[in-house]
């Protein structure tokens, strides 16, 4: 029981540190975490508000407000569908896309900074542990489906 409790505690700590680090990086862009999540959704391809709502698991009114503020700040653009004028596509602004990508928290260079100082053997152990945890949790999620 002690091991399970300690593992759970460590996972919560790791998650908290990751979130704090992400929040600092996001703040440098002048964004909130929900705004960042929204931009991540439209970075590669435009989406409708409904598609963004489903992806970020926030209410329609919340996402609509986020999009209003991001549009006001020049982060994105709304474009009416040429075929169906009822549909509005949300695009990442070209001028902000470069800034977003250069400051992206998920760049490998950022993870390299976090992992700097570990020996090769320790990195292999970390990798194997994360792989084991991920596969185990994936099975648990599939069992519940």
From TrEMBL:
Q: Does the keyword Ribonucleoprotein apply?
A: no
Q: Which domain of life is it from?
A: Bacteria
One Pfam family from the record: MarR_2
Which CDD domains does its entry note? HTH_ARSR
The protein's UniProt keywords, in alphabetical order, are: DNA-binding, Transcription, Transcription regulation
Q: Which Gene3D superfamilies match?
A: Winged helix-like DNA-binding domain superfamily/Winged helix DNA-binding domain (1.10.10.10)
**HTH marR-type domain mapped to chain residues:** 4-135
The UniProt entry, under PROSITE patterns, shows:
HTH_MARR_2 (PS50995)
> What InterPro entries is this protein classified in?
ArsR-like_HTH (IPR011991), HTH_MarR-typ (IPR000835), WH-like_DNA-bd_sf (IPR036388), WH_DNA-bd_sf (IPR036390)
Q: Per its record, how is this protein called by name?
A: MarR family transcriptional regulator
């Amino acid at each position: 029981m002690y091991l399970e409790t300690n593992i759970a505690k460590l996972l919560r700590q790791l998650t908290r540190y990751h979130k704090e680090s992400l929040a600092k990086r996001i703040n440098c862009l002048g964004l909130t975490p929900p705004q960042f999540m929204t931009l991540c959704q439209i970075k590669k391809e435009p989406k409708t508000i409904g598609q963004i709502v489903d992806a970020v698991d926030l209410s329609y009114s919340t996402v609509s407000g986020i999009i209003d503020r991001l549009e006001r700040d020049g982060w994105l653009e709304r474009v009416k569908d040429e075929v169906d004028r009822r549909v509005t596509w949300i695009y990442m602004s070209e001028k902000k896309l470069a800034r977003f990508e250069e400051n992206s928290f998920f760049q490998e260079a950022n993870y390299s900074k976090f992992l700097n100082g570990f020996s090769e053997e320790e990195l292999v152990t970390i990798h194997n542990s994360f792989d084991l945890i991920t596969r185990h949790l994936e099975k648990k999620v599939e069992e519940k489906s």
